[in-house]
# Entry
Amino acid sequence: MADRLSTGITVLDRQLDGGIPPGSLVLLLAEPASQSELFLYELATTRRTLYLTTVRTEQAIRDAVDRYRGGISQLTVRDVDSAAPLDTANRLVKDLPEDSNLVVDVLDPLEATDTSRYRTFLNELQNHMVNTGGVAMLHAMKDGSSTATRNMSAHMADVVFDLQTDVRSNEIVNRLAVPKFRGGKALEETIKLKLTEDITIDTSRDIA
# Structure
């Protein structure tokens, strides 16, 4: 569809009828030990991207990106102040220009703040993305627990990517579920992916 924005992942765009609607908030749920950062890097290849890091340093992100396909142009990395993460994130988001991506990696420190202020942050972020026509990807870690703010994040998100990583005795299996898609069609089945240097379809058969 002409009004969709690419995720940077051809196989995923094809499943999503061209990509993500402009102005969307995308919640990416993943295990901490997974290769989920590839989704963030691929999104950053599609257009100008502001990358907010809440845990790793700016330099660590730049080093990782430089190792990924020799770097990504039009990428701005900013460290979110751990003392006042919502205030810093709000200030940086307000400067996001039109037709740009936003990446928050990871979302968890923002979710750990005051619930009312976090709700305000999500609503203002959603309004800003709609007004500027970009896509925001909020990278959140699965920790086996459900919190009120995580539920709020999932409810506010227009699209939910749930990366399921299964470590077996002889292989690692990655499946992506898209259980929620406002403005489009949620996927009825998971997509089996290879997460190595990039993201591709895994055509190997599952053996019970």
Remarks:
- The radius of gyration is 16 Å.
- The first strand starts at residue 25 and ends at 30.
